[in-house]
């Protein structure tokens, strides 16, 4: 069953058209990487799925259900959690509250406050401090933890390695792989080759608002991958 | 970096230059204003336009503050009414010449605006609005309660010599002649503000409005420019108030009341604060609408309210925004 | 290299309540040096930049630029003596055009090569667009452009390569190296992208839990087991 | 004699004094309809136009000017004194004439008097004279004042103080509340704490109601003798019901006045506005219209200047008897009344207890007025 | 003196109930809702009319329900379509609504002032020391405390409260966590206006009803909200307490400047602490 499917999606911000026919699909348990240069529209793909960019034509479906109109909360309720670019930690809430915000009481799974704290101990230490009063990388951990709290079927991460120390990126890669092995599908938007390679299985390459290529990462050499990202 | 990062989307350019058509229309409107008194319009229309142009000056001041500094003042009546009160009080209590009184009133009001700006600038957003409201309202209460000075809610009559600036006082109190005065003032103010907003100072204050901290980090002082904008906006409002007092010869604390400040802000937003001339346009529309509604029904309040809601919802960038995009569309351009 | 230091920071400290985000950190930079400042998340790197540039309150320590004590100067005055920075959390003027704001930043320093900076950061094509309308990566480069124009003497960059592709990061690294030589810039670079760090830094300072863990040549640091454990992990060791 | 007589009514149709403006409108409509039914004045029909002033002086002035520009040069309708004070100085320049029927500020027929302004109702200083006659007979020695913090309220308080001290009564507490005050509790408590035996109230409209309602809850109305000006109106009674019973006060006009002319008026009124009796300001406004029409008739002209001239010194019969318009200050010289809210024919209403004759009720004209 | 302080508490209580709805709506929609004064007024009138059929308490329930519905409508028709517009625009729309409401109320109920008697069993007085105090006034204090407690507990400790707080600062992110923010804001705005209705009915035995009653209390409640710190419930509570006292004691001790004191208090607080007593939901 495809958890997320975009069919020939065109999307815009106001009158500025950004996506020109994007089709992609994430099946249950898959690990998919979405790559491309700055400004090609990767984040816009995510934004379209939560209604933050305007879908002008095409279809977006969660769990094979076509979304119309697209509303942010539907994604979450269909089991899709997002680690947004720029982290979007909610100001005024404590770390714990930010995490609780992400939890979905009616979804079962291994993730809860304790599990997240175990993965990122710094969050436990700071549990009652403001989420926004942490360093950039710590906030990134919080954003990832928050997304996991819902025990998602599909985890979308928009440049999660940004601002993370190399060790932490390594750990993130490992934990994403573990997650995938437990059955959570992953859509990873990244610039960091190491992370793409260690997590991704299939890939899509975007350029100028459309998907220009897709395939299996294992079939790509490092050189080819580099080239794709630079189109 | 080697490769160009190409934007995927067609560039969405926010026009920073006014289309020439608009400039031409603007000049034409300004000129038409100067011949209006000779067109034999009914007296009521002319006196309506005269009050509207004073309101327009006030709204221009308020709108400029929104546009250039991002502050929605709920207290500009303090400068408008304050200047009017200064003028009348000085005319009653001091032996100053008529000319001095007329010139000093806006000057003092502006200095007050400048001084107050340092208090106001400690806040932003809604708190700024409310602080300005509180200061203005305190002035209102003062004029209301200090009966010996300003005669409370019954108001005060101006006492100026029969002639000022070599002109008969009645020149300033008749609609046809006063219209020329206030219209000129309005045009000068708008042209001045347009020039100012294109200058370095204009860009700098816009930058400070956007991100005050970063402005400091690229090496600019941020307090003084903002204080200057507040003072300037106060000056504009007080010019309007001075003209009002001169024209009416009679003032009441209503000129200081928050509802007048609120009205000015409404007018500015209806007119659109993205352009310098928007609030003035809004003032003419608003004053004429209210008069029209008042002539035909006592439910002018509902009508004004409903029109306000409709305009604001249908034209979120205000009347001037609508005009601009209309002009653009006529010229075949894209909607911006 | 001369023996005079361009920047001398001593005893930099910032506390939040009882917690010291930065605790008595000292280091010195030579003229023309590119210094990498690395360390795990929350180590205090951004805080260190803040203290150097006078951002925020309750900071201790002295900062000397070319022998002049600038600890008491405001952000604006520090910029005037040649200290310029970029931000980890994008900090630009969203409503202004990209060229417009870069020119504004250049103005104070009577600097007229804004076009060059725009071109080198690949911003020329989008220079007339409003900053809030470009992608996140583009905005990060606008932030960098604001720091670069005006030929600062000392440039503090907080994760300039974050969100860039590897290609672009390396291009940026080369570009910085280049600038440093041409303009005789001194750079303090915070970055988690080790390719960038190892490509251009002369020396590295490693922070950990608000204190200096070690300082040295890139290769020394890279081999330091403590740094590997606390920060680098397997990939770069 | 063909032109119509155009009366412009600039009054508070909305806003805090909206209820008073509506009273003025009802009375003017009534008077005009009545005179037109009789064929007009000298064959000229009377026409009216209304403009809303919200009781704000600056708007009032603009609206009055608008009316004048439209040819409605005979003005009336001001509620707040400030409105009339703003308009009066302009009347000559506009070539208009104005009949005030509600504003009570002394200055209107004093320092700020105008050759084109006439006043039908009773100014503050004259009310004070009426109070004296009543207060003499009251046994309470200690009085408090609860006034509106406006020129009118302050004036009224000051005149009461003067009258009271002349009669060896003490003022033990004084409070003046701003227009639109919500909570009168602190004032009420202050009065109760002061040991006053009576309280003089100079509040109007919503303030009067608010005060009365809250004073009742604190037991002040039951404990103290309460009297006031503009307090004892049909409106207050209608709103307050039993709360208002027994309150004393100056009544400038009451539908209970026992004269044939008034009876006829009240009957006709009840026909036009079924189920209502003319209230205080309705009576006073009608009175003003009666005299105005007489003036126009006498002038035999629609020119404001002629009308003003004809009104000066005119003497005519009205619903409250014969009255004259004083030449010196254009004030109507007329009687005043003191009364009490009582149950009459099963309804509560202000009932006249004492009538004060014109010579006592209307002290001499103010020297400050130079016409 | 003690009685005067008690009177101050009563007024503070009233101000608090009026203000708290403003705080709620401001918190969620970032809009200073001028229409709130109108809702308060409509609540009072609706309660007045409904009371003729259902009695005071029935009227109270009707008014609260009617106002809640109006709030839901308001959110649906105004706040939601305008959520991406400049906040000032939305503020002006609410101002327009206030104007329309005042006019409509005047059309239906007339310009005359109306009054409502305190309901049984709160219509009497109690002996406090040697002074009689109206029981109804004590009830106002009690209602204010109940509202304060209820709201605080709800926002602090319930899941819905967490959602409200989150969505007030970042609706999109909150939505991404599976919260239907639009439904949430319908109910919160509805609750806010229902509180306006409640305050209108509660106020009516104290204050006379007139079409201008809304605007006359609006500014004072703005002062409370801003002094307390925008969006802060605890702040509003403290500010209402303070302003109630300042207002009352001012009238007693410095009557000539009493009307300026709350304004000056706000100015001073904002100068010393520009964010008011508190920063965010607390
Ligand atoms: N406003 C604040 N209040 C409390 N603690 C803070 C605040 N700002 C930062 N901190 C803490 O100070 C420490 C240092 O933060 P800093 O931002 O300097 O880290 P950093 O080294 O830049 O990390 P990163 O690589 O993740 O950006 C962190 O533990 C952070 O949580
Ligand atoms: N709010 C907006 N309004 C108008 N255009 C926008 C807006 N946000 C993004 N764009 C444009 O849409 C295009 C795609 O942006 P998007 O953020 O999806 O890129 P991206 O691939 O995620 O880039 P990055 O790697 O930099 O995050 C860019 O050209 C950008 O300029
Ligand atoms: Mg992106
Ligand atoms: Mg950092």
UniProtKB/TrEMBL annotation, chain A:
The keyword Zinc does not apply. GO terms for molecular function: ATP binding. Keywords: Amino-acid transport, ATP-binding, Nucleotide-binding, Transport. SUPFAM superfamilies: P-loop containing nucleoside triphosphate hydrolases (SSF52540). It comes from the Bacteria. The keyword Heme does not apply. Residues 4-231 form the ABC transporter domain. It holds the Pfam family ABC_tran. PROSITE patterns: ABC_TRANSPORTER_1 (PS00211), ABC_TRANSPORTER_2 (PS50893). InterPro entries: AAA+_ATPase (IPR003593), ABC_transporter-like_ATP-bd (IPR003439), ABC_transporter-like_CS (IPR017871), BCAA_Transport_ATP-bd_LivF (IPR052156), P-loop_NTPase (IPR027417). Belongs to the ABC transporter superfamily. PANTHER family: HIGH-AFFINITY BRANCHED-CHAIN AMINO ACID TRANSPORT ATP-BINDING PROTEIN LIVF. This is ABC transporter ATP-binding protein. The lineage of its organism: Bacteria, Pseudomonadati, Pseudomonadota, Alphaproteobacteria, Hyphomicrobiales.
TrEMBL record, chain B:
It comes from Neorhizobium phenanthreniclasticum. It is a multi-pass membrane protein. Its main location: membrane. Pfam families: BPD_transp_2. The chain crosses the membrane at residues 21-39, 45-66, 78-96, 102-121, 128-146, 177-196, 223-245, 265-288, 300-319. Keywords: Cell membrane, Membrane, Transmembrane, Transmembrane helix. InterPro entries: ABC_transp_permease, LivM-like. It is found in: Cell membrane. PANTHER family: ABC TRANSPORTER ATP-BINDING PROTEIN, HIGH-AFFINITY BRANCHED-CHAIN AMINO ACID TRANSPORT SYSTEM PERMEASE. It comes from the Bacteria. This is Branched-chain amino acid ABC transporter permease.
TrEMBL record, chain C:
Coiled coil: none annotated. It comes from the Bacteria. Residues 7-234 form the ABC transporter domain. GO terms for molecular function: ATP binding. The keyword ATP-binding applies. PANTHER family: CONSERVED COMPONENT OF ABC TRANSPORTER FOR NATURAL AMINO ACIDS-RELATED. Belongs to the ABC transporter superfamily. This is ABC transporter ATP-binding protein.
Automatic annotation (TrEMBL), chain E:
Its main location: membrane. The keyword rRNA-binding does not apply. The chain crosses the membrane at residues 9-28, 48-77, 89-111, 131-155, 185-209, 221-244, 250-272. CDD domains: TM_PBP1_LivH_like. It is found in: Cell membrane. InterPro entries: ABC_transp_permease (IPR001851), BCAA_transport_permease (IPR052157). Keywords: Amino-acid transport, Cell membrane, Membrane, Transmembrane, Transmembrane helix, Transport. It is a multi-pass membrane protein. Signal peptide: none annotated. It holds the Pfam family BPD_transp_2. Belongs to the binding-protein-dependent transport system permease family. LivHM subfamily. This is Branched-chain amino acid ABC transporter permease. It comes from Neorhizobium phenanthreniclasticum.
């Amino acid at each position: 069953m495809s958890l997320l499917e975009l069919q020939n999606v065109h999307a815009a911000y106001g009158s500025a058209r950004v996506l020109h026919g994007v089709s992609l699909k994430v099946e249950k348990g898959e690990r998919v990487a979405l790559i491309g240069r700055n400004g090609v529209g990767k984040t816009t793909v995510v934004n379209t799925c939560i209604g933050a960019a305007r879908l002008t034509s095409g279809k977006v479906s969660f769990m094979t259900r076509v979304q119309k109109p697209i509303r942010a909360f539907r994604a979450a309720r269909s089991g899709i959690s997002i680690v947004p670019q720029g982290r979007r930690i909610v100001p005024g809430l404590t770390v714990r509250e930010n995490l609780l915000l992400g939890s979905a009481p009616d979804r079962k799974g291994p993730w809860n406050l304790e599990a997240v704290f175990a993965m990122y101990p710094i969050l436990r230490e700071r549990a009652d401090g403001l989420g926004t009063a942490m360093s950039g990388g710590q906030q990134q951990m919080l954003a990832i933890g928050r997304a996991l709290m819902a025990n998602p079927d599909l985890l979308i991460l928009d440049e999660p390695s940004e601002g993370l120390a190399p060790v932490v990126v390594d750990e993130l890669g490992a934990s994403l792989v573990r997650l995938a092995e437990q059955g959570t599908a992953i859509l990873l938007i990244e610039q960091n080759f190491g992370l793409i390679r260690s997590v991704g299985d299939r890939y899509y390459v975007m350029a100028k608002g459309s998907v220009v290529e897709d395939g299996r990462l294992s079939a790509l050499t490092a050189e080819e991958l580099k080239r794709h990202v630079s189109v | 970096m080697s490769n160009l990062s190409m934007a995927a989307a067609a560039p969405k350019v926010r026009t920073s230059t006014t289309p020439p058509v608009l400039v031409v229309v603007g000049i034409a409107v300004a000129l038409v204003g100067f011949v209006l008194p000779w067109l034999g319009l009914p007296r009521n229309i002319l006196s309506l336009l005269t009050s509207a142009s004073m309101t327009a000056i006030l709204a221009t001041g308020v709108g400029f503050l929104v546009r250039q500094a991002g502050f929605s003042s709920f207290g500009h009546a303090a400068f408008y009414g304050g200047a009017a009160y200064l003028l009348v009080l000085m005319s009653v209590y001091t032996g100053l010449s008529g000319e001095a009184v007329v010139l000093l009133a806006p000057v003092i009001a502006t200095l007050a605006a400048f001084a107050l700006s340092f208090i106001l600038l400690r806040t932003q957003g809604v708190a700024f609005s409310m602080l300005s409201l509180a200061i203005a309202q305190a002035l209102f209460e003062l004029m209301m309660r200090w009966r010996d000075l300003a005669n409370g809610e019954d108001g005060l009559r101006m006492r100026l010599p029969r002639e000022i600036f070599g002109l008969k006082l009645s020149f300033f109190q008749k609609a046809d002649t006063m219209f020329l005065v206030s219209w000129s003032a309005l045009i000068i103010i708008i042209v001045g503000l347009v020039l100012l907003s294109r200058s370095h100072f204009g860009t700098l204050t816009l930058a400070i409005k956007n991100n005050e901290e970063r402005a400091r980090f690229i090496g600019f002082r941020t307090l003084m420019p903002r204080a200057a904008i507040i003072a300037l906006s106060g000056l504009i409002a007080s010019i309007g108030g001075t003209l009002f007092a001169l024209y009416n010869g009679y003032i009441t604390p209503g000129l200081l009341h928050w509802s007048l400040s609120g009205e000015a802000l409404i007018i500015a937003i209806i007119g659109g604060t993205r352009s310098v001339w928007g609030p003035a346009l809004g003032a003419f529309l608003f004053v004429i609408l209210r008069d029209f509604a008042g002539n035909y029904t006592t439910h002018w309040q509902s009508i004004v309210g409903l029109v306000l809601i409709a305009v604001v919802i249908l034209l979120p960038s205000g009347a001037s925004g609508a005009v601009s995009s209309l002009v653009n569309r006529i010229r075949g351009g894209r909607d911006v | 290299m001369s023996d005079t230091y361009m920047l001398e920071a001593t005893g930099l400290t910032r506390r939040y309540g009882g917690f010291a985000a930065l605790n008595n950190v000292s280091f010195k930079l030579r003229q023309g040096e590119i210094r990498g400042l690395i360390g795990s998340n929350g180590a205090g790197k951004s805080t260190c930049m803040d203290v150097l540039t006078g951002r925020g309150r309750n900071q201790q320590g002295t900062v000397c630029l070319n022998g002049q004590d600038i600890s008491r100067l405001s952000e604006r005055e520090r910029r005037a003596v040649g200290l310029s920075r970029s931000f980890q959390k994008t900090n630009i003027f969203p409503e202004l055009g990209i060229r417009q704001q870069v020119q504004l930043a250049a103005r104070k320093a009577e600097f007229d090569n804004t076009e060059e900076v725009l071109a080198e950061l690949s911003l020329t094509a989008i220079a007339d667009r409003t900053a809030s309308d470009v992608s996140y990566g583009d905005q990060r480069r606008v932030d960098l452009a604001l720091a670069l124009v005006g030929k600062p003497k000392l440039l503090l960059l907080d994760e300039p390569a974050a969100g860039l592709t590897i290609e672009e990061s390396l291009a940026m690294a080369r570009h910085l190296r280049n600038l440093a030589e041409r303009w005789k810039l001194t750079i303090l670079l915070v970055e988690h992208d080790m390719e960038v760090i190892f490509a251009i830094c002369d020396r590295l300072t490693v922070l950990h839990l608000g204190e200096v863990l070690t300082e040295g040549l890139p290769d020394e640091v890279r081999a330091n087991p403590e740094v590997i454990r606390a920060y680098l992990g397997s990939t770069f060791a | 004699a063909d032109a119509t007589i155009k009366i412009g009514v600039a009054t508070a149709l909305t806003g805090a004094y909206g209820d008073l403006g509506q009273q003025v409108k009802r009375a003017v409509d009534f008077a005009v309809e009545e005179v037109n039914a009789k064929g007009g004045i000298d064959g000229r029909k009377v026409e009216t136009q209304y403009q809303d002033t919200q009781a704000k002086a600056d708007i009032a002035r603009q609206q009055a000017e608008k009316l004048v520009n439209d040819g409605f040069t005979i003005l009336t309708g001001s509620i707040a004194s400030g409105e009339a004070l703003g308009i009066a100085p302009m009347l000559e320049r506009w070539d208009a004439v104005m009949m005030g029927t509600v504003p009570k500020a002394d200055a209107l027929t004093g320092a700020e008097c105008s050759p084109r302004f006439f006043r039908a109702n009773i100014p503050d200083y004259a009310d004070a004279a009426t109070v004296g006659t009543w207060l003499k007979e009251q046994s309470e020695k200690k009085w408090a004042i609860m006034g509106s913090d406006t020129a009118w309220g302050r004036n009224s308080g000051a005149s009461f103080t003067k009258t009271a001290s002349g009669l060896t009564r003490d003022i033990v507490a004084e409070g003046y509340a701003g227009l639109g005050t919500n909570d009168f509790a602190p004032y009420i408590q202050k009065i109760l704490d002061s040991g006053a035996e009576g309280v003089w109230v100079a509040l109007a409209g919503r303030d009067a109601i608010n005060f009365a309602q809250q004073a009742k809850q604190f037991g002040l109305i039951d404990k103290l003798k309460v009297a006031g000006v503009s307090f004892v109106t049909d409106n207050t009674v209608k709103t307050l019901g039993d709360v208002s019973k027994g309150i004393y006060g100056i009544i400038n006009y009451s539908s209970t006045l026992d004269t044939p002319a008034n009876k006829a008026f009240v009957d006709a009124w009840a026909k036009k506005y079924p189920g209502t009796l003319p209230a205080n300001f309705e009576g006073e406004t009608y009175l003003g219209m009666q005299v105005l029409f007489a003036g126009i008739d006498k002038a035999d002209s629609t020119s404001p200047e002629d009308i003003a001239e004809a009104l000066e010194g005119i003497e005519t019969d009205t619903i409250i008897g014969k009255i004259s318009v004083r030449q010196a200050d254009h004030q109507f010289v007329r009687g005043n009344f003191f009364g009490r809210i009582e149950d009459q024919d099963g309804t509560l209403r202000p009932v006249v207890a004492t009538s004060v004759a014109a010579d006592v009720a209307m002290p001499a004209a103010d020297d400050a007025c130079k016409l | 003196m003690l009685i005067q302080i008690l009177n101050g508490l009563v007024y503070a209580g009233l101000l608090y109930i009026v203000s708290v709805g403003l705080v709620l709506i401001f918190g969620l929609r970032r809009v200073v809702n001028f229409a709130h004064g109108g809702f308060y007024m409509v609540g009072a009138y609706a309660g007045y009319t409904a009371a003729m059929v259902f009695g005071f308490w029935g009227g109270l329930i009707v008014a609260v329900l009617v106002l809640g519905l109006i709030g839901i409508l308001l959110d649906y028709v105004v706040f939601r379509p305008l959520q991406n517009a400049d906040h000032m625009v939305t503020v002006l729309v609410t101002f327009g609504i206030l104007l329309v409401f005042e006019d409509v109320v005047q059309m239906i109920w007339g310009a005359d002032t109306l009054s409502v008697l305190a309901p049984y069993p709160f219509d009497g007085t109690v002996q406090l020391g040697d002074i009689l105090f109206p029981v109804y006034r004590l009830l106002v204090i009690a209602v204010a405390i109940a509202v304060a407690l209820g709201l605080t507990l709800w926002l602090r400790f319930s899941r819905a409260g967490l959602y409200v707080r989150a969505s007030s600062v970042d609706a999109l992110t909150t939505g991404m966590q599976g919260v239907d923010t639009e439904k949430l804001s319908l109910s919160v705005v509805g609750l806010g206006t229902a509180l306006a209705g409640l305050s209108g009915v509660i106020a009516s035995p104290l204050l006379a009803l007139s079409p201008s009653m809304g605007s006359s209390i609006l500014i004072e409640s703005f002062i409370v909200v801003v002094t307390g710190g925008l969006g802060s419930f605890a702040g509003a509570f403290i500010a209402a307490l303070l302003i109630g006292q300042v207002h009352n004691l001012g009238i007693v001790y410095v009557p000539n400047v009493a009307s300026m004191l709350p304004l000056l208090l706000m100015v001073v607080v904002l100068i010393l602490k520009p964010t008011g007593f508190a920063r965010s939901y607390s």
